[in-house]
Amino acid sequence: MRRQVSTAPRRLTLRQSLGRTHLVAAITAVSVAGLFFTLVALLVVRFYADHNLELVARAISYSAEAAVVFHDEEAASEALSGIVAKEEVAEATIVLTNGQLLA
How far apart are CA 6 and CA 9, in angstroms? Predict the structure, then answer.
């Protein structure tokens, strides 16, 4: 006996069709959730970085306040170097209100 091979496309059953639809929906949901959590994590890291910079700036302003009032460049440089040595800061400067660089 010989089988005849049909050239017509094979039709999916309802179970196969629903299984594929469920798989596509699950992959889409997981992808969207992963993208959402990644964006939220990036925003949180950005917020904490900005907050950390504000705290470092506040520490510098408290430490160098007297040096700025008396225009003492040496004391301002010491205050800056003390803060910058403890924190991971790339660059820190103290600029007076008239635009002159103090430290």
Answer: 8
